[in-house]
Amino acid sequence: MARSTVLLSRDGMYYHVGKIRESDLEKAVVEHSKDVFGDRTLYFAIKQRVESTTKQRSTDGLLLDLSVPERPRFWLVEVELSTHDMMKDVGPQIKNFLSALKNEETLRKVREVLYEEIRRERSRYELIQNVIGVKEGIHYFLDKLLHDEEARGVLIVIDELVDELEELRTDWFTGQVVETILFKIYRKGDKEIYYFTPYKASKEPPDKGRPSDRYVDWKVAYDRSPALIKELADELIKRVETEFTDIEHGPFLTRSWYKFSLKDVKSKKRAKFLVFWLTKSHLHLRIAVDPRDFEDRRHLAKPYKGFFWSNAPNTQEMELAIASKDELDSALELIKQSYSHAKLAA
Predict the structure, then answer these.
(1) What percent of the chain has pLDDT above 90?
(2) Which of the four, 23, 71, 89, 190, has the lowest number of CB atoms within 10 Å?
(3) Quick check: 143 and 171 in contact, CB under 8 A?
(4) In angstroms, rounded to a whole number, what is the distance separating the alpha carbons of residues 165 and 344?
(5) What gap in Å lies between CA 196 and CA 180, rounded to an integer?
């Protein structure tokens, strides 16, 4: 069983705060914004409403990065907890933020907010003026920066790096600018210290060779996975295929997920009983079970709010990760329960 990490300081042991409120994380980031983002950045802890074509959402902050004068950057900042459902909640939220950056009215509102915030403090004004020079007005500079697609993006600050977030960043947001910063809080009594990965400015624009606005499919994800993970995926498919005869299986058409379903069932949601995907070190499995009689003696699975089986009655979506063939027998016992649940619901 994994144990919580500790930091040893001259005044004793500081213990990692595993259960943390998002507001505590936001407060720590604000108080130490210059340490996290850099001296030549301006962080505005503003709950700015941004609007895409489908939904309005609020950011946790706006960041201007002036570290590289010839390549300034702008970020919508989102502070997240690793306990949130990455696929159901965080993914759509970040996608909305990225879409909002293409909305002209949103860009106008953000520009005006930034301009007013900069004018409030002389030090902010002077920092930007030193970067852009006296010939270019700040209003014009902000407008030009916000309309530069390669200079803007979404920056996620999170208390633990989880595989699902990396899946979102590399597969769902391919070709778009999404970065992550790890920020952990450690406490000893009423004292706190922090462990974080500092933001690093880049002189280079994002790789234009990466395809834009599309998802990575199963074949691409499979081909770039380590050999051991490929073998594990192949063995899982073989074992499930052998265990159940009235099923069909294959990858999603446009995503890096692989699904197993019952044959001849009209409802695709009810027919599914297993979805999995690959990461560099694990296979991540999602199953759907009846929480009233679900048995997980080894406590391998953890509940999710629901993504593949959202709003399905008497159904709890569960996830488990497996890293070796030795874990397949235990995983198969849980998959059998998902299969039985699908049979009853069909």
Answers:
(1) 51
(2) 190
(3) no
(4) 33
(5) 11
Name the pLDDT band for 268 (thresholds 50, 70, 90). confident
Give kind and range of the element (H or E) at residue 301: none
Residue 292 near residue 252 (C-beta atoms within 8 A): no
Distance CA 89, CA 73 (A): 26
What pLDDT was estimated at residue 212?
36
What phi, psi does 137 have (nearest 5°)? Answer: -75, 150
Confidence of residue 175 (pLDDT cuts 50, 70, 90): low
pLDDT in tens, 279-315: 888 999 999 999 999 999 999 999 887 678 877 889 9
Q: Tell which CATH architecture fits domain 218-345.
A: Alpha-Beta Complex (3.90)
Sketch the domain layout of the chain as residue ranges: 6-196, 218-345
pLDDT in tens, 78-107: 999 988 888 778 888 888 888 888 889 989
Measured CA to CA in angstroms, residue 111 lies from 129, 140, 326 at distances of 16, 9, 55
Mean predicted confidence (pLDDT) in 192-214: 61
Q: How many helices (H) and strands (E) does the chain have?
A: 11, 16
Tell me which DSSP letter residue 291 carries.
T
What residues have CB less than 8 Å from 114, skipping those under 6 apart?
44, 62, 64, 142
Report the predicted TM-score, pTM, of the whole model to 2 decimal places.
0.61
Q: How far is CA 11 from the centre of its chain?
A: 35
Q: What is the DSSP string of 26-95?
A: HHHHHHTHHHHH-TTEEEE----EEE-SS-EEE-SEEEEE-SSTTS-EEEEEEEE-TTS-IIIIIHHHHH
Cα separation of 316 and 292, whole Å?
9
Lookup result for tokens 């997920």: 257
CA 167 to each of CA 10, 60, 94, 283: distance values in angstroms, whole numbers, following the listed order: 38, 22, 13, 12
Count the neighbouring beta carbons within 10 Å of the beta carbon of residue 264: 9
